């Protein structure tokens, strides 16, 4: 069983389109995260939810909107896609939003905006 | 703010060589420190972690010690294998659990 899964794995789209990426975890964790990995492999936190409540919202354009329908799911919707949004997006989860917790990562969604 | 600096790669080693990847950090409070590994085309996996000063994390022959006096968390392995070829990320976590990553170090081990 996959602990943290993401769909789709690959996403190729045109500038200006709206797209969503879905994430699901079956670990029973309370906290979920979105990270962005750029072309140089640098990883940066975007959002974090704990028990469906937003707790971290980094300086991300408001074209990005996370939604957590329940504790096991955290989706990422992106409006008006731009070339610079091309990246790999990773979802992760942990038991609690605590510094000592291990985060478990999904396989990533590779987004290419043309 | 919090930040992590790790040595630039790529690092190329022969099989059975000794590995060190340096990592230093800047943080307020008492962060936890992590090493994550990313194999080609995959997500990140936890390699090891340490949650307080002087703790040593270890896994699969890799070790790192949380040194508060030098603000470091260097990764070491005594004898690398071809299967260790990957990108290694040093990271610290803040009070809300968000990970701040270094830029990653690519390791290539040749037979």
Keywords:
heterodimer, A: 114 residues, mainly beta, seven-stranded mixed β-sheet, four-stranded antiparallel β-sheet, 0% helix, 55% strand, B: 111 residues, six-stranded mixed β-sheet
Percent helix of chain A, as a range, is under 10%
Shape designation of chain B: globular
Helix tally of chain A equals 0
Oligomer: heterodimer
Order of helices and strands of chain B: EEEEEEEEEEEE
Task: Please provide the count of β strands of chain A.
Answer: 11
Give the N-to-C terminal Cα separation of chain A. Answer: 34 Å
% residues in beta strands of chain B: over 45%
Write up what this structure looks like:
The complex is a heterodimer of chains A (114) and B (111). Chain A is mainly β. Chain A has strands at 4-7, 10-13, 19-25, 31-37, 43-50, 53-57, 64-70, 73-78, 87-94, 104-105, 109-113. Chain A is globular. The mean pLDDT of chain A is 93. In chain B, the strands form 3 sheets. In chain B, strands 2, 5, 6, 10, 11 and 12 form a 6-stranded mixed beta sheet that branches. In chain B, strands 3-9-8-7 form a 4-stranded antiparallel beta sheet, with no helix packed on it. A two-stranded antiparallel sheet of chain B has the order 1-4. Chain B has 111 residues and is mainly beta. Chain B has no helices and 12 strands. Chain B starts with a strand and ends with a strand. Chains A and B meet through strand 4, strand 5, strand 9 and strand 10 of A and strand 5, strand 6, strand 10 and strand 11 of B.
